[in-house]
Design brief:
InterPro entries: HMA_dom, HMA_dom_sf. It is built from two helices and four strands. By secondary structure, it is an alpha+beta fold. A four-stranded antiparallel sheet has the order 2-3-1-4, with helices on one face. A hairpin with a 7-residue loop joins strand 2 (30-35) and strand 3 (43-49). The longest helix has 12 residues, at 14-25. It is globular. It starts with a strand and ends in a 7-residue tail after the last strand.
């Protein structure tokens, strides 16, 4: 199992969060997603996968529904 941490940008409400989660779960291998919604700010997120996940795949998925993704540096991801 792999874990990827990042910040989602552009989420303003629970509907935005639901759209972003749906997009993330469409990425092959995603098994769990946890997001701390910060309306109008950067929302920390952690994604677990059954296979290695790339930030590029996750960024593309949330980008298709209008949101951004910022990768956390390794020290901040802990």
């Amino acid at each position: 199992m792999t874990t990827t941490s990042f910040v989602l940008e552009g989420l303003t409400c629970s509907s935005c969060l639901a759209e972003a989660l749906e997009a993330i779960f469409e990425v092959d291998g995603v098994t769990r997603v946890a997001v701390d919604l910060v309306a109008g700010g950067g929302s920390p997120a952690v994604v677990d996968g059954s296979a290695p996940l790339t930030v590029g795949d996750l960024r593309a998925a949330v980008g298709r529904v209008g949101f951004g993704l910022v990768e956390l540096p390794p020290a901040a991801a802990r």
